Fold this sequence. Notes:
By secondary structure, the protein is of the alpha/beta class. The protein has a single domain, classed as 3-Layer(aba) Sandwich (Rossmann fold). It has 8 helices and 5 strands, in the order E-H-E-H-E-H-E-H-E-H-H-H-H. The chain has helices at residues 20-30, 67-78, 95-102, 124-136, 150-158, 164-167, 169-173, 182-203; strands at 4-10, 36-42, 81-87, 112-118, 140-148. A 5-stranded parallel sheet has the order 2-1-3-4-5, with helices on both faces. The longest helix has 22 residues, at 182-203.
Amino acid sequence: MDKIKIKIILGSIREGRFGERPANWINEELKNWEGVDAELLDLKDYPMPFFDAPMGPSMMNMKYPNETVQKWSDKIKEADAFIVVSPEYNHGYSSVLKNALDWLGPEWSMKPAGFVSYGSVSGARAIEQLRTVAIELNMVPIKKSIHIGWEFMMSAWNNKSISNADLFAPLRKGTGPMGSDHLAAFMENLLWMARALKSARQSA
């Protein structure tokens, strides 16, 4: 089977955002992952208007009047799976991420999504909400997720020279609260679903 194309979506455009750290870390890790073609999509590079179309995305046939939305659509169409990196704001996820999700429809369909979050309660409530939205968009949210606690964020703020690999080492070496090699378990879950769904889409 061809390589699994994974789009890592950085779901924050806030100045000084922490999300760059985990998004870039995962992107670098996946460069060494056999059978994976990963690409980081930063929503700063896709400044889409708030959704204002007169009809829903399912009726647009993946053709959009806005050039940036079309560019976003073309990237999402390429994907076999998604890793969404989001902060938790006020018990939910970011508005810019919701807008990016809402602009598209069939581009998301029948593809798995894994979630990475940080902030209050390690982003648990943001991921909970993202899973329900993913289901409505006909994605398949996986069980495994990566929750980044305050200790990682404080380490990054207190030691700006620390590398991403060192910062998130507990998630690979099993020295943190999440058990052994949490990223590997997350990726195995995502890739199993991605391969199964890609095969199903190709044979449909």
